[in-house]
Batch of 2 targets.
Target 1
Amino acid sequence: MSEPSRSAPVGVILAVAPDRFAEVVEALRQAGLTVTGEQPVLGTLSGTVAEDRIPALGAVDGVDSVDRDRTVQLPPPDSSIQ
């Protein structure tokens, strides 16, 4: 189990080896990732993790990349933009 963190959680998107998906996801959970979405066929998943734990996710064998989630929420087309 990973050490508790004091940094705020951030969203991340990971690319992992599709042929080892379940194994890698379990290792990521042990490294502190809370999984919020999985796409095993594509080898991608999303989740949240304490910001200072991001390097630990990248060190998991079978992880190809770890990126901060840069999802942007746009207002609906009929709303006024402020």
Note: The mean pLDDT is 87.
Target 2
Amino acid sequence: MTDVLRRGRVSLAFGFFAQGVAFALLVTRIPAIQDRYGVSDALLPVFLAAVPILAGVGSVVTGRLVRRVRPSRLLRWSQPVVLLALLGVGAGDRLAVLAVALAVFGLAVGALDASMNMLGVSLQRSYGRSIMLGFHAAYSLGGILGASLAWAGAHWDLTLWVSYLPVVAVLVPAALVGSRWYVDGPGRDGEPGVEGAPKGEGVGVGFKVLLPLCLVMTFAYIGDSTVSNWSAKYLQDVLGSSEQLATVPYNVYMVTTLVGRAVGDFGVRRFGAVAVVRGGAVVAAGGFAVVAGAPGAWVGMLGFMLLGLGLCVLVPQTFAAAGRLAAERDGRAGASDAAVARLNVFNYVGFLVGSPLVGALGDAWSYRGAMLVPMVLVLVTVVYARSFEAQPDRYGGGHERPRTADVGRGSNGL
């Protein structure tokens, strides 16, 4: 293992962490943003839906750009744009400013999410062992910190720009400095492609091949958005908790997500990705079942805890599987990046579908019954678990092995 890879791993983990902070600071202060700009309840869903839609556009564009531009460069410049757009959301005073800031935030987040996971997948391949869950654990840690900072800002009645400015002032220069050590995948900067394959655009992996992973990604984010958007209301309105206690389930979910991702790579190395994905899907489905049948708030809290432990492994492993599948089927440089960018769009599809789906079912049927729908969808992941299995490579093994060509060169020329 080289120092280049180690520095690349640490710097990318910080990138995930910074993105977790930024996203949490935005979504946890939505009521304050609505009050600042006078956004009506009817107009708010339009603004909220626009962000993931534009993020999907940003991810698609990134998938095309990486044919000519290294993912590390896209990540280097998209992360500061995300942070500055966040500051723009907090500093504006007109609805047009909010619309522009959120549009920039959404497009940049799409590029950021796609390029971050591209680098994560390529680093995991270079390491020859599972490290992808660790990056997403850093994201979860950032989300917890961001939510805590948002709580502090609301508690002390700070204006949005006062809450955001210190965070942006620290994270932007730190992210730019850390970006010097990003490590690109094989085939960049004149390096040979995977297993010495020639360079090329690497777009030979069709949508049909990726479809099972796209469905898993969508179902996972339907489950995640259900927790983030409905856990507080469910605990208070259905399970009869106090307003203060209703704020706890999402925090419990985030903490158990962090714990699960922190140890998840060890599970993948020990038991394999297929077993971990199956186990995560079953645990998550069990969490939804506990939430749906909970007699009171504390049992419901247990259900949300199980959801964090189960859902946390699905998204990182789906990205890793897409990159591995693309590399196995198309050795050209960029095949893995194109697959990750395409898969990343379904992150936003699940986010868009999840909350309205549960809300509509809750109003038309019951919120207990509505929780069974994401339960079934997440459980379907078990059917697609074989898509996460590494195919035997040309050396006859079933696991990836480190390759010198996979190290690539860092964005600073290392």
Note: The chain has 15 helices and no strands.
